[in-house]
Amino acid sequence: MKKYQTNSATETQKIAADLASCCKNGGIIALSGPLGSGKTTFTQGFAKTLGITQNLISPTFILIRSYPIPENNQGQLFHIDLYRLENKSQIETIGLSDILDNPYNITLIEWAERLDKLPENTIKINIAPKGENSREIEVIE
Ligand SMILES: Nc1ncnc2c1ncn2[C@@H]1O[C@H](COP(=O)(O)OP(=O)(O)OP(=O)(O)O)[C@@H](O)[C@H]1O
Ligand SMILES: [Mg+2]
C-alpha cells in the first residue's frame, strides 16, 4: 500500500497524473472516500496523463461518461459515479460488465463500494479528508 498526502486539489491532480502511468493501456480504478473528498478531482488529473484534454464533468446523474483516449483506439476512458445508483439492474443498463471486460478500457469508478464485486486487478484508491484542503490518498494494488 502506498500513501500520499496532499494539501490542494492541484496537488491531488498531480498525484493522480503520476499514478495514471500505471494504466495507460487499460485498467480499473475504484475510488472511495466521502462526498467532496476529491474523487472527481483525482479522475481529472488522471485523465490528463492519458492525453484527454477536455474538462471532465462529474457523471452524477447519468452515472457514466466516456472519453476517447488518444493513442488507444481499442479502449475508452469511462468515468463512472455510482452515488445515485438506484438498483442493481442499472449496472447492467450502463453495460458495466462489458466495459470491464475490455482490457483496453480505463475505468474509474466513484462510489465503487456500491458494487458487490470488482475484478481482481482493480486498483483501489481511498481518499480521506484530513482538513479543509488536506487529504490522505491510499493506493491498494
Ligand atoms: N487536497 C485536495 N484534494 C482534492 N480536492 C480538494 C483538496 N482540497 C480541496 N479540495 C476541494 O474539494 C472538492 C472535491 O470535490 P470532488 O467533486 O472532486 O469530490 P468527490 O469526491 O468527487 O465528491 P462526490 O462524492 O460528491 O462525487 C473540490 O471542490 C476541491 O477543490
Ligand atoms: Mg465526484
Say which molecules are bound, naming each kind only once.
adenosine-5'-triphosphate, magnesium ion
Distance between the termini: 7 Å
- For CATH, the homologous superfamily is named as P-loop containing nucleotide triphosphate hydrolases
* CATH architecture title: 3-Layer(aba) Sandwich
Rg over alpha carbons? 14 Å
Put simply, the count of helices is: 4
Per CATH, the class reads Alpha Beta
Any low-confidence stretches, pLDDT <50, length ≥5? none
Overall mean confidence score, pLDDT: 94
- Broad structural category: alpha/beta
- What fraction of the residues are assigned to beta strands by DSSP? 25-35%
Summarize the main sheet. 7 strands, mixed
Helix content: 10-25%
Tally of extended strands?
A: 7
Q: What is the N-to-C order of secondary-structure elements (H for helix, E for strand)? A: EHEHEEHHEEE
Going across the biggest sheet, name each strand in turn: 1-7-6-2-5-4-3
Please indicate the count of domains.
1
Name the overall outline. globular
CATH topology: Rossmann fold
Structure characterization notes:
- By secondary structure, the protein is α/β, with parallel strands linked by helices.
- The protein has a single domain, classed as Rossmann fold (3-Layer(aba) Sandwich), CATH 3.40.50.
- 24% of the residues lie in helices and 32% in strands.
- It contains four helices and seven strands; from the N terminus they run βαβαββααβββ.
- The longest helix has 11 residues, at 9-19.
- The protein starts with a strand and ends with a strand.
- The model has no long low-confidence stretch (mean pLDDT 94).
- The structure holds adenosine-5'-triphosphate (ATP) and magnesium ion.
- Residues 39-40, 58, 81, 110 line the site of magnesium ion.
